[in-house]
Each structure stands twice: as C-alpha cells, then as structure tokens.
Write a structure and sequence with these properties.
Strand 1, helix 2 and strand 2 form a beta-alpha-beta unit. The chain is built from three helices and four strands, in the order αβαβαββ. It has one domain. Strands 1-2-4-3 form a four-stranded mixed beta sheet. The protein has 89 residues and is α+β, with helices and mostly antiparallel strands. Helix 1 packs parallel to helix 2.
Length: 89
C-alpha cells in the first residue's frame, strides 16, 4: 500500500516541487519527499497529493484546464496547479 505514496513523494522530491495535501493524512509522503507538507490550496506550479478515490472531486473543484494529473499509482495521485490566466506552470 506504500508503493504509490512513496513513488509520488520521491517524484516530487526529484522534480523539486512543493507538495500540498488534499483531504488526506499521509505522513510518509512528507518523510519521503523530505519536506513539510501542509493542507492548503495549491498555488500555480505546486503539486497536490490526492488519493485516487478523491481525484475526480479535486479536479472538478477548479476551472477546467487549471489542473493537470502528473502521476497516478494507487492509492496516490499528484496534480499540478497551472496558472489560471494562461494555463502555464
């Protein structure tokens, strides 16, 4: 069960991306990514750690095209928040 969260955290660490959590408590993600992760709204360029069973809810809670799925491996997903004005990172 830890394979998805660990892989997600290591990818964020490798890409030097700040992570935020969406409706989840997963301390191991903080450990593997070597960063303090907060439960807050993701800003453009940041990645949100989301459980796959909440992914559709997370994607639908923002304007179309403002979020992009970067990674999916059960039970974890990483979603990048794009710049709302031009769709860029």
């Amino acid at each position: 069960m830890q394979a998805g969260p660990k892989a997600a955290a290591l990818l964020a660490k490798e890409q030097e991306k700040k992570l935020v959590l969406y409706r989840v408590y997963q301390p191991s993600v903080s450990l593997y990514s070597e960063q303090v992760i907060r439960k807050e709204a993701a800003q453009p360029g940041e990645w949100a750690y989301v459980r796959i069973d909440r992914l559709d809810d997370y994607l639908e809670s923002a304007p179309a095209g403002s979020r992009r799925v970067i990674f999916k491996q059960a039970p974890a997903a990483l979603v990048e928040t794009l710049d709302a004005q031009n769709g860029n990172k």
